[in-house]
Structures are given as structure tokens and as C-alpha cells.
Specification:
Length: 247
Amino acid sequence: MNELNGTTALVTGANRGIGKAFVLALLQAGAAKIYAAARNPETLDALLAEHGGRVLPITLDITDREQVATVAGQLTDLELLINNAGIAHFDGLLAPKNPDAARAEMETNYFGLLNMVQAFAPVLGANGGGAMVNLASIVSHVSFPALGSYSASKAAAHSLTQAIRGELRAQGTHVLGVYPGPVDTDMGAAVKMEKTPPAVVAKAVLDALETGEEDVYPDPTAQHLHQSLLADAKAVERETAQMLPAA
Ligand SMILES: NC(=O)c1ccc[n+]([C@@H]2O[C@H](COP(=O)([O-])OP(=O)(O)OC[C@H]3O[C@@H](n4cnc5c(N)ncnc54)[C@H](OP(=O)(O)O)[C@@H]3O)[C@@H](O)[C@H]2O)c1
């Protein structure tokens, strides 16, 4: 996708964090129409009050397969799908505070993503191919024990992204995987590391779409870890293995 100007896009989890930054960046890039999806449409009110017109609200919980299919049937003009919605429980695998955390993360970060991909692939295909962006994480590539179940769900999202890129090639849909480090959002609040502003992530993703890249590492932490993984993946694993869940 080398032209964002005039495109029609859908952003999941558009009410806050990186999703909201995507909406603002798409407006800036000249998108004709942006479907801003949120579980609770009232959480979009402030965004719509300021940027209504080209931004249209959509009620969407990505874990609800029927709702996803219904919305896909309505947004017949979609050309760019940004799968941004996600959750993180920030806990380990052995003794999580919430025993349902790992399942919930898989349900949203993997199965929710799969719902979206399956429902919207035909829409993108009917509109000439277009593009799909999947928000994975740098922890897709190396697990952090302090967020072990989240890491596993994002590794699954990365694997899905690779496989679907192959399946969608024939219909001309470009698939972009995004692998950020810590980002300054509600989700990132628990992380005590340097954080990148969400607008930087959104801009890097839109730039990568225009240049046709398949993977984007949008911040210094992600770029550093990516390079380190290429150089010596086992050494990085040994390092991150020391980042244990809080007792
Ligand atoms: N922040 C980071 O450090 C970081 C780093 C790497 C990757 N990421 C990934 O980037 C994406 C955005 O993260 P963020 O930092 O912006 O997180 P955030 O501030 O916590 O926002 C998450 C968004 O996802 C939505 N969401 C959660 N579950 C959903 C569901 N079942 N259906 C629809 N929407 C749902 C939330 O909606 P509600 O308002 O209704 O809860 C919210 O809009 C996520 O996929 C995350 O895993 C984040």
C-alpha cells in the first residue's frame, strides 16, 4: 500500500493508547474515512467531538466472532485494517495472580486477531488487496518471564502474521507485523523502562506501509533487541530470563 491519502481504514481499540494515535496519524496522512472501533462506543466521544467527519465510530469486541462478522459485512469499502486491540496482564506463568489471565490474553491477542483476519480478508480482497497491520510486540520474539503469558500470546500473534502473509499473497493484501518495545500508554504504565510515545509508533507504521516493509520495530528498545536477537538469540533469552515476575 503506497498511498494512504484517500484510503479507508479500520482501527481496533481506537479509543485510547496506540489505537487513538493511529486514528490521528491516519487523519494527518489524508485517509478519507477512518472507522474507529471500540468495545464501548462512548469511549470514542472525545475523539469524535474533536475529529468527527472522517472518523466514524464502530462498536466492536474482537473476541465476539459474530459481532466481528457482522461488522465485516457492513464495512464493504475497507482497504486498510489495523489490528491494534490487545490486553496484557503482566504476570508470570507459574503462579499468576489471575488464573484466567493466560486464557484471556490468548482469547484477545490471538483468537480475537484470528476472528478479525478471517472476517476481513475477503473485504480487503474485494477492494483490490489493501493492507493489514498486526500489533504484535518485541516479546513475540523473546519471552519475558515477568509477562510470560502475554509473551506467549504475542508469539502466537506473530506466527499468525507470518502464516496469513502467505495465505493473503495471492489476493494482493500486504501484511505488516509491528513489534514495539515499551510504549507510553495505559498498558505500558506498569513497565519501568524508557517508553516511546504512541504517536511515534503510529508514524513508523504508516511510513512502513508506504515503503512496503513487512516488519517494523518502531522504537529504540525494539530496534536494539531485534539487532541483538539477530546477533545472538540465546544470549538475549538468557538476559530476559532474569526478568522474573514480582514475588
Ligand atoms: N504499550 C506497550 O508497551 C505495547 C508494546 C508492544 C505492543 N503493544 C500492543 O499494542 C496494542 C495497543 O496497546 P496499547 O498500549 O495502546 O494498550 P492500551 O492502552 O491498554 O489499549 C488497548 C486497547 O485495546 C482495546 N481492547 C482490549 N480488548 C479488546 C477487545 N476484546 N475488543 C476490542 N478492543 C479491545 C482496549 O479497549 P478498552 O478501552 O475497551 O479496554 C483499548 O482500546 C496492543 O495489541 C498491545 O499488546 C503495546
